[in-house]
Amino acid sequence: MLNDAILNTIDSCKYLGHIMSTDDDNSDIIRQIGWLYTPEQNNMLIRKFSKCDSNVKMGLFRAYCTQFYGCSTWKRFKVTVIRRFEAAYVKCTKVSLVLSGNTV
User: Fold this and answer.
1) Contact predicate 64/13, CB 8 Å
2) For a Cys-Cys bond, which of 15, 19, 64, 94 suits 100, CB 3.0-4.6 Å?
3) What confidence score (pLDDT) does residue 41 get?
4) Domain limits of the chain?
5) Per-residue b/e over 46-57, b at no fewer than 16 CB within 10 Å?
6) Who's near 36: CB < 8 A, 6+ residues apart?
């Protein structure tokens, strides 16, 4: 209650692009996995910077494909979800460095 008015509560909301939830952080981690697999981001870097040094590619990948702001708040999650996130990060990193012939 606030000033004798009942406040409504919600189980989750999107705040500054992150999904805040009362039970766990799985929804926000899954949102981040989707961002990693966004074809426009990763494939654009592969096309435009394919001839660059791997350090340059890694820097560009980190700057444009990994929006990890807020991941330090992830405290409650299923191990399977965080492992999916790790696998997505590794796959996208390999593709960005052209260690694999696959595209996202």
Assistant:
1) no
2) 94
3) 65
4) 12-96
5) beebeeeeeeeb
6) 42, 65, 66, 85, 88, 89, 92, 104
The answer to whether residues 78 and 24 touch, using CB atoms and an 8 Å cutoff, is yes
The 3-state DSSP class for residue 58 equals: helix
| pLDDT block averages, 10 residues each, the chain of length 104 | 89 86 90 79 74 81 73 87 91 68 47
Structure tokens at 27: 């929804």
Rg, C-alpha atoms of the chain? 18
Quote the CA–CA distance of 26 and 101 in Å, as a whole number. Answer: 30
* Model pTM score: 0.69
- Alpha-carbon dihedral sign for residues 28, 81, 76, 61: negative
